[in-house]
Amino acid sequence: MRFGDLKQELLEGVYDPGIFKAFFLAGGAGSGKSYSAEKATGSAAGKFSWDSSMEKITPGKVGPYGLKVVNSDEQLEYGLMKAKMSSNMKAYTDDDTTRKELIRAKAKKKTAKKEQLWVNGRLGLIIDGTAKDITKLSIKKKALEDVGYDTHMIFVNTSLDVAIQQNNSRKRKLPDEIIRQTWNEVQGIKNELANLFAGGFVEIVNNRAGEDVFRKSFVEVGKLIKRPPTKPAAKMWIAQELEQKKR
Description:
CATH architecture: 3-Layer(aba) Sandwich
CATH class: Alpha Beta
Helix content: 40-55%
Number of helices: 10
Largest sheet: 5 strands, parallel
CATH superfamily: P-loop containing nucleotide triphosphate hydrolases
Order of helices and strands: HEHEEEHHEHEHHHEHH
Structural class: alpha/beta
Oligomer: single chain
Strand content: 5-15%
Distance between the termini: 28 Å
């Protein structure tokens, strides 16, 4: 996205339907978080493609609610492609793993910069991650709430067998031990996450889920998005932005 386009998007943020809403994604690797988020929010979460010159093709608006997807894996995959590295991490040597981690560090920096611009514009967010570090997640949740965001969670649940199968069927494959590890970690804190996001916790059971499951989730998420911002900081920011537009 060009800077001029991003600047215009931020200026129009006060009219964005998903303004001051942040949805954290939780679920182990291979649970199908990005796909489930796409279905539950009507967005293009995790959907991207590349042209022959390896330039990023920006999909534009990510759905009817204008939620922006924060996902460093997208930048990681781009970095791997530029480095001409395989996306099948099961076949990595120790040297490959070291190179991949360097690329991941750069991907996280780029993603964080983009996320900060979106937060500055108070745009709606889908924050894609496993959510296995509940302390780190809680700190980020509070930081967003301090500037006016209402925070929610979409928890994507699968059986371990399905998570492994889905991992093996996708292009970017992780080692099975990582799938098992993240699955166990996330299952172990599920109740804590539900309490942390009480009143805004949406669970999707993605064991080859049918469209009826995603349709129900879309309705649930839509109700949360359509609620007016509740935080005083959000109401003050909106009032100030609208006043500036009158000048």
